[in-house]
Amino acid sequence: MFLGRHLAFAGLALALLAPPAEAQQAPPTTADPRLVWDLTRLFPTDAAWDAERLALSAELPKLASLKGTLGRDAAALRHALDQFSNADQRLNRLWVYASTQVSTDNGQGRNQERMGLMSALWGQFSSARAWADPEIQAMGADKIAGFQAAEPALARHATRLRQTLQRAQHTLAPEAEFALATMAPVMGSFSNMRELLINADIGWPTLSVDGQPVRLSDTGYVQMRAHPDRAIRKQAFDLFWKTYGQYENTLGALLAQRVQAGVLNARLRKYPSAVAASLSSSEVPEAVLRMLVAEANKGLPTLHRYFRLRQKMLKLPDLHYHDIYPDLVTSTQRYPVEASSRITMTAMKPLGDEYQGELEIALGARTMHALPSPGKRGGAYATSVYGMTPYIFLNHADNFQSLVTFAHEWGHGMHSVLAQRSQPPETAGYPLFLAEIASTTNEVLLTDHMAKQAISRDEKVFVLSQVLERLRAAFFRQTMFAEFELLAHDAQQRGEALSGKRFTQMYCGLLRKYHGADTGVMTIDPQYCQEWAYIPHFHRPFYVYAYATSATAAQFFGERILEGKPGAREAYLGVLKAGGSVPPHELLKSAGLDLTTAEPYQVLIKRMDVVMDEVEKLIE
């Protein structure tokens, strides 16, 4: 997962993907120092961090003194934008230090306080510059263009200026923008309240497994849902979702408030819908999301075929929702961090010598926190500061999934490395729409390499079954989430009441449709329809769809690169090097990929059918 600073301050401070944020219950490790990141590159001590925070806080009010100067001449505009950019980079460096600390020990009070201080500082920064966009928009496109022609140094701010002008009709008066910016931390509190409820206040049940107690929190559930014993899986599902069901009203009220906030924001800013408002920030046309949902629904027969194959391979008399996660084929092969590093390097060979060379340097830079430890959050992510090797957060367990996660996160890392090599800090960052493409393309290349290296039938079936599960989870499951968000926001916009029970009804209908309940493919037990409450990403609406479009893009680029199509590798690397300098949909179109058309999604679904053909031949 790419953890951009914009995610944290939207209220998803560290809602890491799979599983949701939760401390790992792992024994202390004696980790190789090379597998524990060195944060002194950011700040030598906590005191140095705090001194920089206070210094930046004292300087932010000076940004307000620039008000009224932007239209004076090109030099004044450049000076102001340079000041904003400098403050933004300093803020990002502070945030990366704070967020990485709390990730590795979220039970330490000072780490939690540090994140609170960062949230406040972000609000202060937002308020201090809230006047700037209306002032730029009042200048108009012609005057801005004249300034850009007169001052070449404004080129690094071209994207910021273009996006600001595009938002003109959706920007409020300066006083209103200031008020909204000041209220931003409060508007993000719904997610924080949910996190506290889930991680601190709910008394999670305990399940006895092989004589050992397992606490069925989010982390325990993730462990137990893949248990090979079907009876244990069902017990885990029943207990876990019963617990979530007890908080249906509270969790529903929090999500309903978040949905309402999105709809109100769209109305205030004169967007036709909440989804249009959300996607406009990354310059992605709404047609992309609509096409994704439409094509995923058309591809449901392929998903249902996969479920029938799963039932056959697991030798089950029927299929229930608690049968989705067990491995179809087990593997005892171990992949320590060193092996994962070596295999990832080899698997990336199709991307060329430059990519492999940069990856080798990055892997030796001591920027990974690789192993589980007490107090450490679950999941994985990559985060970066301009000009520095990205930081990679892992909970490496030496299994195949850890290998895939390793390659995935270093895909994010290399995206940042290549963008920073080619772009100034103002455009080296990239939007969510692009963020998961590099990581998921790495997964495509890795699993292709592992399938080709398999020396036995069982080993190959294992790898191919992992490919199928990745496509199910990244494409179909994330699209189902996106469709749920559409249903919820559309209902709110129609003036309909939302509650936990209403969310459960909406989600249950989608579970039944996607899993073929009405055609006898899978039984969906009603109590499992509480799953909407388990997904933290719904508190950042219209975010999860990017996982599905990224899986689609990764399959498109990965297949072309592996087939050796002329220019395919160069086009893909060009996307990574562009960072955020070009509107993302336009950038992908220039590389040959148009996600407003059906073809890319059909490529992914066809790939799923081809893999199932191969698996069926192997197991027969």
Kindly report the name of the CATH homologous superfamily of the domain at 5-13 and 22-171.
Oligopeptidase f, N-terminal domain
Radius of gyration: 24 Å
Discrete helix count: 27
Give a quick account of the main beta sheet: strands, pairing sense, barrel closure. Answer: 3 strands, mixed
Q: What is the CATH architecture assignment of the domain at 5-13 and 22-171?
A: Up-down Bundle
CATH fold descriptor of the domain at 5-13 and 22-171: Butyryl-CoA Dehydrogenase, subunit A, domain 3
Mean pLDDT: 91
Shape: globular
Separation of termini? 37 Å
What is the share of helical residues?
Answer: 55-70%
Strand arrangement across the biggest beta sheet: 3-5-4
Give a count of the beta strands, DSSP E runs of length 2 or more: 5
